Amino acid sequence: MPTFSAPDGTRLAYRVTGDGEPLVCLPGGPSDSRYLGDLGGLSAHRRLITLDLRGTGRSAVPEDPASYRCDRLVGDVEALRVHLGLSRIDLLAHSGGANLAAQYAARHPDKVARLALIGPGARAVGIAVTGETRRELALLRSDEPWFPAAFAALEAIAQGAGSDWEAVAPFFCGRWDAAARQHHAAGRPVNDEAVALFAAEGAFDPRTTRAALAAFEAPVLLVAGEFDLNSPPRTVTEFAELFPDATLAVQPGAGHYPWLDDADRFVATTTAFLNR
Fold first, then answer.
1. What letter does residue 233 receive in the DSSP assignment?
2. Mean residue pLDDT across the chain
3. Residue 250 pairs with which residues in a beta bridge?
């Protein structure tokens, strides 16, 4: 597995999958980037360069835990670009990784050729998901056999009387089958310190980031799953409105991992954008 050195000397690893023009991919979590797989077959069209964020996967644990903060990780992405010898990169990010990608695009707009945000987290731009929005989405799944227990757990969380996010996991998937259960388990973060410090105080400056993205000239794709409780279509639509040149795609029947729920549709949408 290839590695490179971050600005502070931390050894970072990345995976290379497929052939074609490179596409740098950032995971959410922070989790081992293995859960992204080949993004439903996107590797047949692009060479995926998938970064393990510091302290996850095969990347080293940094000496300074404060370097787990999202804004500090921008330097790691830039170091990867330099290591790859690319003047500009096509950049894809999933979930919480979109916060990192947004800050990278804001700080290095001339280094991004295209930006794809999949089920994006939006804390970096100050967009919050309300409990009511999640509740409305959840009610769309009321015919599912797992709904009663999952919805009860969600209501308890919303009321501050519970914290069992594992019980609401079915809401994050278009289909809660064996493959979804396995994928969910494999994608769980294991570095609690990295998770806790990713959004530590100072990690986000929404006003500055939003102002920079308003002047971001590269094309942007935002993909939302129709049923994604983590990144609801309403929230992703608001995110898309921050960019001058944004394409919003809501994938029917999908949750937080649209490449699992309908790989062909996801790959078609993403490759059409990347080939613009």
1. H
2. 96
3. 224
